[in-house]
Amino acid sequence: MAAASSRISSLGLLLAAHCALLLALAGAAHGHGYAPSGGVALSSGFYDESCPSAYDVVRRVIQDARVSDLRVPTSLICLHFHDCFVNGCDGSILLDDDLPAIQSEKHVPANDKSARGFEVVDDIKSALEAACPGIVSCANILALAAEISVELAGRPRWRVLLGRRDGTTTNIKSANNLPSPFDPLDKLLEKFRNFNLDDTDLVALQGAHTFGKVQCQFTQQNCTAGQSSGALENLDQVTPKLFDNKYYNNLLEGHAQLRSDQVMLSDPCAAATTTPIVHRFAGNQQDFFKNFVASMIKMGNISPLIGKDGEIRNNCRRVNKRY
Ligand code: HEM
Ligand SMILES: *[C@@H]1O[C@H](CO)[C@@H](O)[C@H](O)[C@H]1NC(C)=O
């Protein structure tokens, strides 16, 4: 008994020490230049002169596409996240294989069988090229689509910052390091802090799991008898189509679909980091919305290519020329 309890308390100490280290590191993290450098920054009015219809064009193509595939908007916001976490928000996730120069990020575990909506991005790009040729980058298409997907699910709206240009490379190592549904909380926090995204950003951004689908192979339950691994379930099983704070209430009831959602309450590191934030957002939807918007803008600001860096791709799947 005594041995068991001392083992438990030393395990507790170990965990406490581990979480304390995590907290200490938080202040020291400087990410890699998430903010645009050199004075030029993204702006919401970037296309006011050069392509005033950009927002409406993106919205119309998404509206048309979701008639036959309801999941288009949620798949697109997920693409923006996976784009921004690899080389910054530069459209790198959209590039197809063009070996040896370009090895596509689409085949890494986090994207393979999960990243979707590429045909819709192609359609958006074609519509934009018709409206204002050579102006709107593929990275900005994903940023606009992310906002539109939330707006179409009910709210909140925000002014998307624009001006990103498209990258000319992919980064497989970084794509292999995308957050995983099987990561423990300290790993998730670390992966966000690498981009100067803090605990509140992690909790707010995971709130995007208030809508969209998940393959049962990634859920805590790992499918039920007779279900194939790719069988789709709702991420939010209570209000699956609505962008609301119900997701956090599901967590409080222990009903998150992903383990990486539930760890924000259940992990030993949660009490000192994410738990109070989950409670806040569960109890106050406006508070969640305000923070979600701020965090989306922060995420969209990860290492953008601006000014003369990068290019405006003609085709989102290919760089304009071999570099
Ligand atoms: C902590 C980091 C995150 C992890 C580990 C994670 C993991 C996942 C997983 C495993 C899926 C299901 C994929 C599948 O079944 O094929 C998913 C779906 C989704 N994720 Fe996340 N996610 C994270 C953060 C985010 C963020 C930051 C956003 C957006 C702001 C987001 C938005 C979505 C959406 C909307 C879906 C549904 C996609 C669809 O319906 O096609 N996730 N996520
Ligand atoms: C889920 O179940 C499948 C089939 O039983 C198994 O191959 C897979 O490893 C399981 N996944 C996890 C994460 O446990």
What is the secondary structure topology, with strand pairs?
Blueprint: H1 2-28, H2 54-68, H3 72-84, H4 118-131, H5 138-152, H6 172-175, H7 185-193, H8 199-206, E1 213-215, E2 232-234, H9 246-252, H10 259-266, H11 275-283, H12 285-300
Helix pairs in contact: 2-4, 2-5, 3-5, 8-12, 9-11, 11-12
The structure holds protoporphyrin IX containing FE (HEM) and 2-acetamido-2-deoxy-beta-D-glucopyranose.
Feature tags:
Peroxidase, domain 2, 12 helices, 323 residues, disordered N terminus, binds protoporphyrin IX containing FE, two-stranded antiparallel sheet, binds 2-acetamido-2-deoxy-beta-D-glucopyranose, globular
Tell me what you see in this structure.
With 323 residues, this protein is an all-alpha fold. It has one domain: Peroxidase, domain 2. It is built from twelve helices and two strands. A two-stranded antiparallel ribbon has the order 1-2. α3 packs across α5. The protein is globular and about 50 Å long. The relative contact order is 0.17. Mean pLDDT is 91; it is low at 1-9 and 26-39. The structure holds protoporphyrin IX containing FE and 2-acetamido-2-deoxy-beta-D-glucopyranose.
